[in-house]
# Entry
Amino acid sequence: MNLQSTKFDAVKRPVTLITAGSVLLLALLWWFLWMAPQGNKLTTVNSQNATLSNQLSTLQQTLTVDRAQSAKVNLYAGYLKMFATAVPEVPDAGGLTTELSTLADSISSNLTITTLTDDSTVPGTPLGMVPLSIELNGPRSDCFTFLDDLYNPKKISRLITISSFVPTPVTGASGSSVLKPSNQLYNVAIAGDAYYDGEIDPGLPGSVTTTTIAPT
# Structure
């Protein structure tokens, strides 16, 4: 019996050929009808994922920048609010007088503003000035506390600069001693300027008058 002839005959049988052809046809159908489309879908999904990842990265970078800018905006808004109070739109001599008097009262009942001149203006751009002339009477330590508080925005809201501070001991005043020199009474002359927004309100030069505040 010829084995090779037998195998060849089996291959030539219709059933074998049909089976082999069916398997091949199913494989081709599987590839073209399912595998290839799914592969294309997978490629599309991967491409979309890459695009979305890039968009997410861009959005995250934008969000980081926006958060940083938002923090700056909040910080600058606080500064603008502070400066809007420190440098008002108008000279507001009345409000300035009240603040200075309140400041002196808050330091000590022994500290007195004897003279206060703050009702003239010097127009300017961007800042106009309100010249200040203040005379104090009180213990040395209280006078220096008053000077220090003029630069403290928690104590007085207006922006003030001081050009001179001249303390003069009161001759023969009681209360001072070697151990407590801060109790020495002084008369202090202070000169300086408060400010207002000269671009909003140019103001007009005012006549300098002297206001005497009686001791309380």
Observations:
- The mean pLDDT is 79.
- The CA atoms of residues 120 and 206 lie 4 Å apart.
- The domain at 93-212 is CATH 3.30.70.60 (Alpha-Beta Plaits).
